[in-house]
Amino acid sequence: MITKIIDGRKIAKEITESLKTKVEDFIQKNRITPELAVIIVGEDPASLFYVKMIGKTCEKVSINFKEHNLSKETSPEELLKLINNLNKDKKISGIIVQVPLPKHINQDQIQEVVNPSKDVDCFNPINMGRLALGKPEFLPCTPYAVYELIKRENIEVEGKHTVIIGRSNIVGRPMALILLQKKEHANATITVCHSLTKDLIYFTRQADILIAAVGKPEIIKRDMVKEGAIIIDVGTNEVGGKLVGDVAYDEVLGKVSLVTPVPGGVGPITNVMLMQNTLKAAEKLVN
Ligand code: NAP
């Protein structure tokens, strides 16, 4: 079987180009430039790198980017005050509070304070609740990237047995909710697996569509996937200085009908979906 290999960078470029035009139209019509505020507390290297990438993506689509770098000693009160100011600031369309936060700050409490209309990461429980009810305002960026990829590749999902490995609030859980929606490119039949799932292979072998969001290098082997399955690999794991996915990519080639590589699959699309959410938030503010 010939396996189709998805070029996530190409998809990200296409979305970026069309988004840039949409943002420029928005600016011309409303005389306001969408602005994304990112708060980072402390100096976690992975977070600093991620925020730098967000800044670059903002620049590509003409969205203003404002970084708030706070020291790791920042008190919860100071952080709350900043978020409240950004919530009220009419210039700010979207707010991200980069996680992880230092241990003395309650992450759940902070995420609840971000104005749901500016919550472009979709971390506020109100937005997750809306998604759970099938009436989402925003979609969390990583599963949104997978959904966008499914749409663009015209992958048939309706009624298909979709097995998601991982139930985190950032990836696995919202992924299941997105594909459960009564909507085009959704309506899937979903199984969600996690670390306590017994006999994982029993489920993965049944998957028409397999979405891996585990964080364990190449845990999904050739014998675990069905012939002709669609494999979407969200995992990003560093092994010996190289990025690898949760799927043993070389092994599944020739057995499955479609696969997303790591790197170069879902990853590049994620930040672009954040821009999509920021434009949506800006539109809400003017309407
Ligand atoms: P996470 O919070 O650590 O969640 C991992 C999930 O995998 C958990 O639900 C866990 O089960 C499950 N799991 C762990 N070991 C397992 C096993 N042996 N068998 C079955 N399930 C197992 O991670 P995450 O934030 O969701 O991220 C998952 C992966 O996606 C990571 O590699 C991360 O780097 C990557 N990621 C990529 C992007 C992107 O491409 N843009 C964005 C975000 C994350 P329990 O719930 O029982 O612990």
UniProtKB/TrEMBL annotation:
Xref: Pfam families: THF_DHG_CYH, THF_DHG_CYH_C
GO biological process: one example: methionine biosynthetic process
Pathway: One-carbon metabolism; tetrahydrofolate interconversion
MF terms in GO: methenyltetrahydrofolate cyclohydrolase activity; methylenetetrahydrofolate dehydrogenase (NADP+) activity
EC numbers on record: 1.5.1.5, 3.5.4.9
Domain Tetrahydrofolate dehydrogenase/cyclohydrolase catalytic: 6-121
Superkingdom of origin: Bacteria
Stated role: Catalyzes the oxidation of 5,10-methylenetetrahydrofolate to 5,10-methenyltetrahydrofolate and then the hydrolysis of 5,10-methenyltetrahydrofolate to 10-formyltetrahydrofolate.
Name by which UniProt lists this protein: Bifunctional protein FolD
